[in-house]
């Protein structure tokens, strides 16, 4: 979702997801310093939402999921989402990511075609 600042986009998305009943995780990208930090926080939030494992307030987790590239992130995410039919992962403020690689946004746009979900 894209639009002017301070218009409630993030709140609207969060409220909609909470009402939808779908499992979801929201990653605040403006809080992530590097792409690796963002990927690892996304994995931690996903594992927490899917498996009910505890993560601390920073989105960090006890597992050892090092994600230094989009391909590694996609592989780890595929493993975390094996038991889920649908999952919503929101990267809030990804366009404001610090130290972002130029290919980050195009790669993230293709993420749904890379990550494989279990078919029923």
Oligomer: single chain
Tell me, rounded to a whole number, the average pLDDT: 83
Uncertain runs with pLDDT below 50, 5 residues or more?
A: 56-62
Helix content: 40-55%
Structural class: mainly alpha
Describe the sheet with the most strands. 2 strands, parallel
End-to-end CA span: 29 Å
Number of helices: 5
The best one-word shape is globular
Q: What is the alpha-carbon Rg in Å?
A: 14 Å
Along the chain, the helix and strand elements come as HEHHEHH
Task: Write up what this structure looks like.
The protein contains five helices and two strands, in the order H-E-H-H-E-H-H. It is 42% helix and 8% strand. It is mostly helical and 120 residues long. Residues 56-62 have low confidence and may be disordered. The chain has helices spanning 9-20, 35-51, 70-80, 104-109, 111-114, and strands at residues 24-28, 88-92. The longest helix is centred in the middle third of the chain and has 17 residues, at 35-51. Helix 2 (35-51) packs parallel to helix 3.
Features:
5 helices; globular
Short description:
Helix content is 42%, strand content 8%.
Write the layout of secondary structure elements.
Blueprint: H1 9-20, E1 24-28, H2 35-51, H3 70-80, E2 88-92, H4 104-109, H5 111-114
Parallel strand pairs: 1-2
């Amino acid at each position: 979702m894209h639009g002017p600042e301070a218009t409630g986009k993030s709140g609207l998305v969060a409220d909609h997801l909470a009402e939808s009943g779908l499992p979801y995780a929201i990653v605040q990208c403006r809080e992530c310093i590097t792409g690796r930090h963002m990927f690892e926080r996304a994995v931690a939030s996903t594992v927490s939402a899917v498996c009910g494992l505890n993560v601390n307030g920073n989105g960090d987790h006890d597992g050892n999921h090092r994600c230094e590239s989009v391909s590694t992130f996609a592989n780890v995410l595929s493993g975390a989402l094996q038991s889920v039919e649908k999952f919503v992962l929101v990267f809030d403020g990804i366009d404001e990511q610090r130290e972002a690689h130029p290919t980050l946004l195009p790669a993230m746009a293709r993420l749904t075609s890379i990550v494989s979900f279990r078919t029923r």
